[in-house]
């Protein structure tokens, strides 16, 4: 999570965004840290934000983290069709929850999880890889604690070893 700070210096508060490509839509500068006094055309708002985002790195060149750089067009369409769903509202979107549960079971069987014929796998769907690894770490810690308790060994100080490249 990024913690943002508020801009308080008067010089910074007066900064505006350079709208090179959006200038065809507007004449007045757009404040950088405040909403403008009047509305701007939606095309201009898109162009301003898109121009700034172009300064980010290119996902296809990012070999250091887990990003999806390409998918089949049908996958892109499914994502676009689902953007307006609140993933955590399971009562409102029961089919989405059912699909998540089926995916958990498919992955469990793929990795030969020790579950019986009448059992379902235990798992959780996540939105991002960071969330997924944190939940996996917590699950592993619980499993380790249960095992240590059963063995009569201390279970309050796990020793987690990570590589130097952990973020």
UniProtKB/TrEMBL annotation:
The keyword Kinase does not apply. GO terms for molecular function: calmodulin binding; glutamate decarboxylase activity; pyridoxal phosphate binding. One of its GO terms (biological process) is L-glutamate catabolic process. Its cofactor is pyridoxal 5'-phosphate. GO terms for cellular component: cytosol. Pfam families: Pyridoxal_deC. InterPro entries: Glutamate_decarboxylase (IPR010107), PyrdxlP-dep_de-COase (IPR002129), PyrdxlP-dep_Trfase (IPR015424), PyrdxlP-dep_Trfase_major (IPR015421). Keywords: Calmodulin-binding, Lyase, Pyridoxal phosphate. The keyword Lyase applies. Its EC number is 4.1.1.15. SUPFAM superfamilies: PLP-dependent transferases (SSF53383). Belongs to the group II decarboxylase family. This is glutamate decarboxylase. It comes from Trifolium pratense.
């Amino acid at each position: 999570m990024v913690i943002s700070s508020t801009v308080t210096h008067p010089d910074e508060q007066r900064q505006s965004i350079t709208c090179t490509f959006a200038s065809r839509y507007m004449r007045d500068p757009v404040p950088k840290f405040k909403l403008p006094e009047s509305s701007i055309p939606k095309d201009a708002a898109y162009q301003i934000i898109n121009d700034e985002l172009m300064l980010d790195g290119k996902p296809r060149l990012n070999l250091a983290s887990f990003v999806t750089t390409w998918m089949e067009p049908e996958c892109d369409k499914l994502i676009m069709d689902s953007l307006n769903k609140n993933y955590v509202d399971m009562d409102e979107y029961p089919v989405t929850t059912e699909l998540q549960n089926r995916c958990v079971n498919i992955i469990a069987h793929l990795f030969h999880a020790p579950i019986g014929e009448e059992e379902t796998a235990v798992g959780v769907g996540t939105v991002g890889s960071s969330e997924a690894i944190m939940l996996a770490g917590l699950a592993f810690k619980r499993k380790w604690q249960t095992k240590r308790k059963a063995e009569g060994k201390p279970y309050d100080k796990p020793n987690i070893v990570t590589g130097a490249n952990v973020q």
